[in-house]
């Protein structure tokens, strides 16, 4: 099993993630709360300690305004780059 993340940081991403990992708080929240996966399943699938999953969930709920800002920034970035992608319906044989 992986090394336990000791804290949530913002050193590698524009959003909070587990120290020493690329796994974001938002990703873990999505997996557990939006997709309904068990925290142990998320930990096993991503080589995390289950404590890291709970740590990320706690961070998400303790820092709701920060996480809302992160989510708005992510949505804006996706929208800003939408013109760089091709809709499959627009592709012709």
TrEMBL record:
<dbReference type="InterPro" id="IPR009057">
    <property type="entry name" value="Homeodomain-like_sf"/>
</dbReference>
<dbReference type="InterPro" id="IPR007367">
    <property type="entry name" value="DUF433"/>
</dbReference>
<feature type="region of interest" description="Disordered">
    <location>
        <begin position="67"/>
        <end position="93"/>
    </location>
</feature>
<dbReference type="InterPro" id="IPR036388">
    <property type="entry name" value="WH-like_DNA-bd_sf"/>
</dbReference>
<dbReference type="Pfam" id="PF04255">
    <property type="entry name" value="DUF433"/>
</dbReference>
<protein>
    <recommendedName>
        <fullName>DUF433 domain-containing protein</fullName>
    </recommendedName>
</protein>
